[in-house]
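#struct-help
A.M.: can someone run this one for me? Single chain, 377 residues.
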Amino acid sequence: MTIIKVKKESKDFYKPDQSSDVQDENQLLKNSLNYLKAELNKFKEMPLLVSEVKKVIGNKVIIKVPNGSHFLVNVAGNLEVCTGDLVLVEQRSLTVVQKLENSNSFDVEDFVIIDKPNVSWDEVGGLDDKIREIKEVIELPLLKPEIFVQLGIDPPKGVLLYGPPGTGKTMLAKAVATSAKCTFIELVGSELVQKFIGEGAKLVRDLFKLAREKAPSIVFIDEIDAIAAERLDLGTSGEREVQRTFMQLLTEIDGFNSLDNVKIIAATNRFDILDPAVLRPGRFDRLIDIDFPDENARFKILKIHSSKMNLSDVSFEQINKDIEGFSGADIKALCTEAGYFAIRNDRNYVVHEDFINAVSKLNNMSKEDTNYVEMFG
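D.P.: on it. C-alpha cells below:
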C-alpha cells in the first residue's frame, strides 16, 4: 500500500514584499482605469463654439456665431466679458461658459516674419537708384526721426513698387526685411479677402493694430492689386466685400489713427488697374517704377548670379548683348540652365557655350508663350 504524504502549505507563503507588489499593481490598474474613463468622457462631451461678443446687455450678451448669426444669450457663473471678447458657448443653449485670452479672430502673429530672409543689398543688382529711394522712405524715418523733426516735415508713410514680373520688387522687400532692425510683417493681398462680410476689414484692422504694438515695424503687402483694383459701380457681393476691405486699408493708412513708426511697402505688376485713391500723396508717397534692367544693370545682375559658379572662359560682355529684354528673374534662370547644360556634358564647370545654349532655350520658351496671340488674334 502506497502512502501519499501531503505537504502542508506554509503560512508564510505570502511574504510582506510580495503583498506590497500586489498593492502597487492594484493601484496602477486603478489609475489606468480612471485615466481611460476620463478619456472616454472626453469623447462624450459636446464641443463648444467659438463666438464673439458684440454687445453686453445687463447680465446677458449678444454674440456672433461663426455662421454670422447673432443671438442674445446668458453668461454662466460670474464670468465677466466685454465687447469684442472671444468666448466659448455651449451648442444647445449658446450659454457663454468660458472666455478666451486672445481677442483676435485671426492669427495675425503668423504674418510676422521671425526668420528673416537672407538677402543683402549687395545681392540686388542694377537698382541703385531704387534702393536709395527705398532707404530714404523706409529706413531713414525709422533710424533718424530727429532729422524730420528739425526740418519740420512729416516722413513718408509708404512706397509702392510696380513694374513687370521678375524685375526685383519682392527681392527689394526681402532686402529691407534683412537690413531693417524692426518687426517685418509680410502678407499677400489675396489673404485679406475673407468669406463673411466684415471679416476682411477686421483682419486689416488687427494687422495694423499689431504693427503699432510692435513698432517700429514694416508692413509689406505683395500683389496689392488683389484688393486695390479700381472700384466699379456694378459687381457681385464678393467684389463689394473686397471693396470694403480696401476701404478699411485706406482708413488705416490715412485715417484718424496715426501710423507712428509703421511703414508700408506694397508691390504689384498691374499698376494700370489700381484705384486712384491708393495712389494719391499721403498714402503711398513714393511710386517707384521697377522696369526691365538696362545694359549696365543686366551685367551687374549677371555677375551676381554667376559669382558662385565654376566658370571657364566665359565672356559676359557677349552674353549681355544677347539677353536684351531679360528681367532679373530671367537672368537667374539663364545661369541655372547653363549649369544644367554643363551637367549633361559631364563637366563640373560652365563654359561660354553653355550660356549660349541657355539663351537660345529661354528665347524659344518666350516665343512659345506668345503663340496664343497669333492663334486668337
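A.M.: thanks! The chain has a mean pLDDT of 80.
D.P.: also worth noting: DSSP finds twelve helices and twelve strands in the chain.
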